[in-house]
Structures are given as C-alpha cells and as structure tokens.
TrEMBL record:
<keyword id="KW-0784">Thiamine biosynthesis</keyword>
<comment type="function">
    <text>Catalyzes an amino-pyrimidine hydrolysis reaction at the C5' of the pyrimidine moiety of thiamine compounds, a reaction that is part of a thiamine salvage pathway.</text>
</comment>
<comment type="similarity">
    <text>Belongs to the TenA family.</text>
</comment>
<feature type="domain" description="Thiaminase-2/PQQC">
    <location>
        <begin position="29"/>
        <end position="232"/>
    </location>
</feature>
<dbReference type="GO" id="GO:0009229">
    <property type="term" value="P:thiamine diphosphate biosynthetic process"/>
</dbReference>
<dbReference type="GO" id="GO:0005829">
    <property type="term" value="C:cytosol"/>
</dbReference>
<protein>
    <recommendedName>
        <fullName>Aminopyrimidine aminohydrolase</fullName>
        <ecNumber>3.5.99.2</ecNumber>
    </recommendedName>
</protein>
<comment type="pathway">
    <text>Cofactor biosynthesis; thiamine diphosphate biosynthesis.</text>
</comment>
<dbReference type="GO" id="GO:0050334">
    <property type="term" value="F:thiaminase activity"/>
</dbReference>
<dbReference type="Pfam" id="PF03070">
    <property type="entry name" value="TENA_THI-4"/>
</dbReference>
<dbReference type="GO" id="GO:0009228">
    <property type="term" value="P:thiamine biosynthetic process"/>
</dbReference>
<dbReference type="InterPro" id="IPR050967">
    <property type="entry name" value="Thiamine_Salvage_TenA"/>
</dbReference>
<dbReference type="InterPro" id="IPR016084">
    <property type="entry name" value="Haem_Oase-like_multi-hlx"/>
</dbReference>
<dbReference type="InterPro" id="IPR027574">
    <property type="entry name" value="Thiaminase_II"/>
</dbReference>
<keyword id="KW-0378">Hydrolase</keyword>
<dbReference type="InterPro" id="IPR004305">
    <property type="entry name" value="Thiaminase-2/PQQC"/>
</dbReference>
Length: 234
C-alpha cells in the first residue's frame, strides 16, 4: 500500500451498499467526524492524557446506553435469527466489551468506582438518548442505521490510522487504542455489521425510506463528532 489510506481502495465495503450510500451522502459531516482534531491528537500522540481519560470515562457510560439500544434491537427483531443476532451484540457488550473497557481504563489510572460514579456529559446524553429514541420509536432498520456511524466510523478511523505512515507508533500512548479499532477482530465485526445492514435494508424497504434514513444517519454522525469533544481537560 502506498500513501494515505483511502476507503474506496483499501476497504471498499465501507463505500458500498446502504452504508456506503449513506456515508457518501453526508460526506461533509462524515469528514468532520473521521477527521476531527481528536483523531489527529491520537495519531500524533499529542492529545493531553487527562482529556483522553475523560473521553474513556464517557465512552464507558456510552457503552452502557449502547447495550440498552441492543436490548431494544432484540425486542424489535421479527425473526428468531434476527433476535439471536441482536442478542449476540448485546452479550458482546455486556460480557466482553464492558469488562475490556474497564481493564483498559485501569491501565490509564481510572478505577472502576470512578467510572461508576461519573456524571454523564451533555454530549453523551444527547447522543445516547437520540439512539434510544430511534430504538423506541423506529423499527429495526431505523435503529441499525442510527447505530451505523458508531460502527463504521471507528472502523474507518482505526483502519486509516493503523495504515497511515503519518501515525506515530513508537512511544505513542494511544497506539493501543488505534490497534484495537484497526485490528482484525474489530474489522470482522464491522464487516458482519455492514452486511447485516444491507440485508435488513433490503427487507425493510430502505430505498423508499431513504430520506428519513439519511437524516437519522447524519444526525448520529454529527453527534459522534460532538462526542469526541468529551476528550477535554478539567
Ligand atoms: C462514542 C463511541 N462511538 C463508537 C464506539 C465504538 N463502538 C462502541 S460499541 C460498538 C459496536 C459493537 O462493539 C462500537 C463499534 C465507541 N466506543 N464510542
């Protein structure tokens, strides 16, 4: 691979199908999200540690709300197969990701009681309650579209930083974060999720509902962008 990472060439799946169309149709907001100063600060290793710690605390609280949305995805599923798929997502968060996140936070000097006692930021409240609103009011497709920027955005950021010659590796305290989202395990999860979105999109008439879906996707992208700003000191 030469030069900078490019979705169309290096991970075409992200640019195809329903997810690819949504990403393309809100490209301005998308670039604000994946090219945010947070991402640059992680790539260069220059972000303040206290800011990153605050982000990790809010991200823990985000995962809890994300799990509640997955629980509603189980409820909204209309086949046993879909229910099992959603239940796997839910169990992935509850049984694996949350404890991994707690362990990761401990490496950054954040103990579990501090996570449990932390107050939800305005940014987290806005984003997670938007997701939960779509989860309660919409159907399975509305919810999957609303969750897609979370899945695809972190994948794109991880893959790009992992591949970029400009990313600082040696002595970069954030390399482990990049390695997580740029790693094979996360990549496989994303490929699964993108395919699932295409299937549900076809079954639920995404074509006819596209303007509404694009609004949901774009709002979630804007909220992801704002969520990066929870990485601040003080
Ligand atoms: C604000 C925020 N957005 C996205 C992710 C990434 N993420 C969280 S749960 C999940 C799906 C299943 O693991 C993904 C990709 C994050 N951590 N924080």
């Amino acid at each position: 691979m030469t030069g900078e990472w490019q979705a169309e060439r290096d991970w075409p799946l992200l640019t195809q199908g329903l997810a690819g169309r949504l990403r393309q149709d809100c490209m301005k907001q998308w670039l604000d999200f994946v090219g945010h100063p947070f991402v640059e600060g992680v790539a260069s290793g220059t972000m303040e540690v206290e800011a990153f710690r605050n982000f990790l605390i809010q991200d823990y609280l985000y995962l809890i709300q994300y799990a509640r949305a997955c629980a509603l995805l189980v409820h909204k599923s209309d086949t046993l197969t879909a229910m099992r798929h959603a239940a796997q997502l839910l169990s992935g968060i509850l049984d694996t990701e949350l404890s991994m996140h707690v362990g990761y936070c401990r490496q950054w000097g954040i103990e579990e009681p501090a996570l449990e006692q932390a107050e939800e930021s305005i940014e987290l409240l806005a984003y997670s309650r938007f997701i939960l609103d779509r989860a309660q009011t919409g159907d399975m497709l509305d919810l999957l579209v609303t969750l897609a920027p979370c899945l695809i955005g972190y994948a794109e950021v991880g893959a790009r930083l992992h591949a970029s010659p400009r990313t600082v590796r040696e002595g970069n305290p954030y390399w482990s974060w990049i390695a997580l989202y740029g790693g094979d395990e996360y990549t496989a999860l994303v490929e699964d999720g993108v395919c699932r979105l295409n299937e549900v999109g076809a079954a639920y008439g995404a074509q006819a509902r596209y303007p509404t879906l694009l609004r949901e996707f774009t709002t979630a992208v804007r909220l992801e962008t704002v969520f990066w700003t929870t990485a601040r000191s003080g």
